[in-house]
Amino acid sequence: MEKTKRKFSTKEIVCMGMFCALAYAVMALSKLIPVSIAGFLNFDFKDFVIAICGFLFGPLPAIIVTVIVSLIEMITISSTGPIGLLMNVLSTCAFVVPAALFYRSKRKFSSAVVGLILGIVCMAIIMVLWNWLITPLYMGVPRETVVGMLLPVFLPFNLIKGAINAAITLLLYHPIVSALRKANLVPQSTSKAPKKKGLSLGVTLVSIFVIISLVLVVLAWTGII
Q1: Distance between CA 142 and CA 62 in Å, rounded?
Q2: Which of 113-127, 140-154, 192-206 is predicted with the least confidence, judged by mean pLDDT?
Q3: In the CATH hierarchy, which top-level class contains the domain 10-189+196-221?
Q4: pTM of the full structure
Q5: Could you give the CA distance from residue 176 to residue 198 in angstroms, rounded to a whole number?
Q6: Mean pLDDT calculated for residue range 87-103
Q7: Where are the domains of the chain?
Q8: How many helices (H) and strands (E) does the chain have?
């Protein structure tokens, strides 16, 4: 039996290009944040853009956007070369692919939340493993030094990074999708269920609270406050 090849419509390609541009812009702005963990771990918030792309179009477009943005980052403003490219792709895909797959199974708010939580966990575990493998070679330090950083540094860093991206995803998903629907780039919702304004307000408030709380944690962790 022949496998059916995934074909993208013109609108999907246009949207993927828009998500690439937006993700790159967010990544570039993230570089301006004067906060780093252990002197070399910097927060990058492009993952929420790619997660929204994954929710809309599925995991494959999200992977394509991830690779394109990471490649452009490598040849423009990154100084970490192919290793940085590899780690960027692994980190983002580990976050967005589980979220997109789970949300695809049933498109409702609870599925989005569970999918994002799965993405946070997957990213944290995968990046701990890959930092154990790659960081000693990249930084030229003994593996024992990196092992001592896995739980106190790499694990909480990726959990916080994933949680902030997840909260921003929930906060901005509907405004971005609504804008794309007004531009007729994505189909209108077929759901006939009435909108629940209380739920939207609750999601907004919780998302903002999570973002502010995690930002304060990072500032306290780095000694800024």
Answers
A1: 35
A2: 192-206
A3: mainly alpha
A4: 0.91
A5: 19
A6: 96
A7: 10-189+196-221
A8: 8, 2
